Amino acid sequence: MSCTVRIASPLRSYTAGAATLAARGSTLAEVLANLEQRCPGIRFRMIDEHDRIRPHMRLFVNTSEARELSAAVREGDTVHVICALSGG
Amino acid sequence: MTLTASERARYQRHLALTEIGAAGQEKLKAARVLVVGVGGLGSPAALYLAAAGCGTLGLLDCDRVELSNLQRQVLFDSSGIARSKAEAGRERLASLNPEIRVLAHALELKAANVCAVFEDYDLVLDGTDRLSTRYLVNDACVILGLPLVSAAIHRFEGQVMTYVPGGGPCYRCVFPQAPEGGVANCAQAGVLGVLPGVLGTLQATEAIKLITGVGEPLTGRLLTYDALEMRFHEFRVARRPDCAVCGDAPTITEPRDPAALPTAAGPAVRRLTAAALHELLRDARAPAPRLVDVREVYEFSAGHLDGSINIPLGELPERLAEIAPHEAPVFICRSGGRSLAACELALRAGVAAPANLDGGLLAWAAEVDPELNVA
């Protein structure tokens, strides 16, 4: 399955500034593992050592929130990585 | 609260809107709105609320106007540099609309004063540049039953959401806990000047809708904006029954300062400013700290602190053995976020007293060595 991942602005230092990346996987876990291969370190910013989504990060598949890494990702979906921003 | 002849003339374009009309304008006149953080977001929000005839407007900010603020903080001008933002803003708004009452709160918001300040208002707009204050503002609004319109920005991106008591999710439902190291603010990461203009006016729009009761508030939805792509995205967010402040069994029942909040990290991470690390490195009597740069290899190659080693954050779990347990490492990255995650990881792995370079190498370049190239 091929999907698009939209990266939150604070994490774009891992993607050489790219806002979106193509990734493969049929679950969120697989998509993030695929992303990690090309952007080392990015997964740890979103997911802790216990495979939990960090509390200041939110992951959405299209417009629906995914609270578990087992969430299904289908062909053509967009995974949105949202991060709490602090600037004012 | 009826309108005077002068007010009817001033707000004629609102009166012409059937959705607002005289009744809505009178609600605006009776409204008391507090703007927390009079910066990039608070400036346009306050200007539009004042122009719209919001009867009582509070400006809360403990900072003073700096030259670098004027690129986006349109409430101020060059003559206001070094003045209190709350005071300078109050004067500007009083000049814009003498019909309204503007109150300046030149103070730092803390658990001890937040309720006393908030109690005099009906609605709060959050545009602070500190994540810990966002949680304090959210918690106080939930506890006091005040609606809150919260917005935040980073570089070219922004997000906004509205909380209404008894309705949808609060800020803590969406982001239950701040990251240990915080996230970069505008000074560290940079920000497109016009970006807070977009988000701040969205906040003012939400405030006017909530006050007048028109339209559909941005509750249960997180709206994000990407200026580079010129795209808005909207995400459904739900109230969490286990939310620490608005959930079914809240554990936060009164506002607490961030230091008092429990953290997942256990023992505290040592926090070093760039100046403090500089002093530490110059102190010949102190043992030289182990500097661990957790950025990616390409970032490290572009420029780094002398004597630092490079272990990208993603490799740290496997390479922690390269740091001796007694070495008390100082973790370093670009702006302080990744390095704090490294501190957290090291603490859990049993490394004694890891330290974080707060603000990262961007702070180092700003405060210590402007020659340092930070990729």
List keywords for this structure.
heterodimer; A: 88 residues; alpha+beta; Ubiquitin-like (UB roll); 5-stranded mixed beta sheet; 2 helices; globular; B: 375 residues; alpha/beta; Rossmann fold; Oxidized Rhodanese, domain 1; 8-stranded mixed beta sheet; 5-stranded parallel beta sheet; elongated
CATH superfamily name of chain A? Beta-grasp domain
Strand content of chain A: 25-35%
Oligomer: heterodimer
Biggest sheet of chain A: strands, sense, closure? 5 strands, mixed
**Name of the level-1 CATH class of the largest domain in chain B:** Alpha Beta
Instruction: Describe the strand arrangement of the main beta sheet of chain A, using strand numbers.
Output: 2-1-5-3-4
Give the tally of β-strands of chain B.
Answer: 13
General description of the model:
The complex is a heterodimer of chains A (88) and B (375). Helices cover 18% and strands 27% of the residues of chain A. Chain A is built from two helices and five strands. Chain A is globular, with a radius of gyration of 12 Å. With 88 residues, chain A is α+β, with helices and mostly antiparallel strands. The N and C termini of chain A lie far apart (38 Å). Chain B has 375 residues and is of the alpha/beta class. Chain B folds into two domains: 31-260, NAD(P)-binding Rossmann-like Domain (Rossmann fold, 3-Layer(aba) Sandwich), CATH 3.40.50; 270-367, Rhodanese-like domain (Oxidized Rhodanese, domain 1). Chain B has an eight-stranded mixed sheet with strand order 3-2-1-4-5-6-7-8, with helices on both faces. In chain B, strands 9-13-12-10-11 form a five-stranded parallel sheet. The longest helix of chain B has 18 residues, at 195-212. Chain B is elongated and about 75 Å long. At the A-B interface, helix 2 and strand 5 of A face strand 5, strand 6, strand 7, strand 8 and helix 14 of B.
